[in-house]
Design a protein that fits this description.
Layout: E1 12-16, H1 21-32, E2 36-41, H2 44-54, E3 58-61, H3 67-75, E4 81-86, H4 101-122, E5 126-135, H5 148-167, E6 172-178, H6 184-190, H7 194-204, H8 213-225, E7 233-236
Parallel strand pairs: 1-2, 1-4, 2-3, 4-5, 5-6, 6-7
Helix pairs in contact: 1-8, 3-4, 4-5
Length: 248
Amino acid sequence: MGPREPELAGQTAVVLGGSAGIGLETARRARAEGAEVILAARNPDRLARAAAEVGARDTAAFDATDPERLEEFFGGLPGAVDHVMVTAGRPYYAPLAELDLDRARRSLDDEFWLPVRVARLATGRVRPGGGLIFMSGTGGRHAAIGLGIIGAVTAALPALVANLALEIAPIRVNLVAPGFVDTPLSAELLADGLEARRERLRAALPIGRVVGPEDVAALAVHLMVNTALTGATYDVDGGQQFAPEAWS
C-alpha cells in the first residue's frame, strides 16, 4: 500500500487572520494536505513570518473588517480559489454598565458582518463545492455578566450560516465553534491568569487537556475535504460547554 495522497492537492485555501493561532495552524495543515495557501492579516511583519513558515503562495496585509479593502482583496485574487477561512477579529467582553458602544459595534462588525461580506464576495471567486469557514464559539451559549454582545453573536451565527449555505450554494458554508483555545490571543487576553486557566481546564474538561489550535485546524481542514458538509455548526471545545466548573 503506497503513501496516502494529499486530500487538498491542486486546491487553494485563503485564510483571513492567517498570521497566528488557529488561522496559521489551519494554513499549515492545509499545506500539509497539498493546498496552496494565501494568507491575509493586519500585521505585515507577523504575516511575513507566517508566510515563510508555511510556504504561502501569496499574502495581503490589510484589515479584513474594512469593506473597501476586503472587496479589493477578493477582486485581486489570482483566479478562483477553493476555500476561504475567516479567523480575523476578536470578541468583546464587557458588562452593560461599562459597555463601550463603539467597541461593541466594531465587535459586531468583526463577528457578524464580516461573514456576510465574505459570503457576498465569494460568489464567482470560490469554486463550486469549495467552501467558506467562519468562527464562533461555545462560551457565548451560557449567560453571564459581560457576555451580552458575544452571546448575541453566538446565537445569531448558526442561523446566518445555515441561510448563507442555501443562498450561495453550491459553495458550502460552515461554522466552527471552539471553546477556550490556547493561542497567542488567549495569552494576550488573560495575561497573568493564563496558566491558572490552563490548569482549571485540564482538571475540568472531559478530554483532560486544553484544546490547542491544531485541534481546531484539524476540523477546519476536514470541512474543506468533506464536500457533503454545509450549513452546520461544529463544536470543538473538549466538552467545555458541559463542564460548568470550567467556567468558574
